[in-house]
Amino acid sequence: xxxxxxxxxxxxxxxxxxxxxxxxxxxxxxxxxxxxxxxxxxxxxxxxxxxxxxxxxxxxxxxxxxxxxxxxxxxxxxxxxxxxxxxxxxxxxxxxxxxxxxxxxxxxxxxxxxxxxxxxxxxxxxxxxxxxxxxxxxxxxxxxxxxxxxxxxxxxxxxxxxxxxxxxxxxxxxxxxxxxxxxxxxxxxxxxxxxxxxxxxxxxxxxxxxxxxxxxxxxxxxxxxxxxxxxxxxxxxxxxxxxxxxxxxxxxxxxxxxxxxxxxxxxxxxxxxxxxxxxxxxxxxxxxxxxxxxxxxxxxxxxxxxxxxxxxxxxxxxxxxxxxxxxxxxxxxxxxxxxxxxxxxxxxxxxxxxxxxxxxxxxxxxxxxxxxxxxxxxxxxxxx
Length: 384
Ligand code: CTP
Description:
Elements: H1 2-6, H2 25-32, H3 48-55, E1 59-64, H4 66-74, H5 80-87, E2 92-96, H6 100-104, H7 106-117, E3 121-122, E4 126-129, E5 135-139, H8 143-156, E6 168-174, E7 178-179, E8 185-186, H9 193-204, E9 208-214, E10 224-229, H10 232-243, E11 248-251, E12 258-260, E13 281-283, H11 287-294, E14 301-308, H12 316-327, E15 331-336, E16 347-354, E17 359-366, H13 367-383
Parallel strand pairs: 1-2, 2-3, 6-9, 6-11, 9-10, 11-14, 14-15
Antiparallel strand pairs: 4-5, 7-8, 12-13, 15-16, 16-17
Helix pairs in contact: 3-5, 4-7, 8-9, 9-13
Cytidine-5'-triphosphate (CTP) is lined by residues 232, 251, 253, 255, 257, 284, 286-288, 304-307.
């Protein structure tokens, strides 16, 4: 709630009776600057049970219990929150939090499926420590990340939609490391920001998202299954295994193309004579090429990235067209990286080339905006 109010949103808090056992009404009233009610009988002259839902741009239920999901799925309306859920015509986001057994129960599964089929966004809970001594799936994602998902939805306004519901997408992000010894590696400058933006955008559009992250120092996006890897070999294994059930694979990672032939088990020492060791490298597998040619799941859309500077043999776009053909993917997102401008930057601009000859220019904007353009192109191809 703080993140919404501090970023200028007008927030009405509607706690359930149960929620007030955790945080009291005075706290909500003081933080939101508005009176707080749980029932439909307070300030009846303002008809709050209809007015709040009708005027909202977004309804967020966080944390959402198994009970509130069940009520929402069945249209029960016995308090102000459930009434609001029936009158809201804006996007609705549920961020469930409960014990693993409750989340996995057939009743909850059915309720979640019903809500998703109706267009609500139900964010997958995170895995980790739960309220008791147990650990498992059911944790509330990081509130900052739930907020980011909500901002995505608000920023898309009427274009917001859950066009990737029922789709599983795999995104790779970050840069791989190839070890020379236990403490040294060859790495690259990829920050993972674009891959994380893609994962977030896919969640906001309703997809089940697997994010294979290589050495990324960013918090897990809400609703995303994050698989952490270090080397290109590990990235390949995880992406290929997830790709067998994926409708789309987006290779936003920067896998190292080469790895040292020998990895020293002990730290390499400096020689007294001032000489330096020679490092012999061997090529890593090209994951994008492998997925594009072997197609672990027929019909899946495969997307690659190309960071190009252009050279004496051709312009950025010439080289990118050649790369698209060489890799065999369906879409290639082309960044002009002359000057290293894109690394770690919140902004990006690109051209999205299609194997069908299409070219979509995406002007300079946020990585989130580019992510949505990419999913637009993917969704178009999935619908064909
Ligand atoms: N890629 C991959 N596996 C690799 C290297 C790259 O899957 N071992 C993917 C990247 O994730 C990206 C795309 O291939 O989606 C383009 O990577 P890039 O390094 O630009 O292409 P290369 O084939 O390495 O060509 P270049 O010679 O221009 O570096």
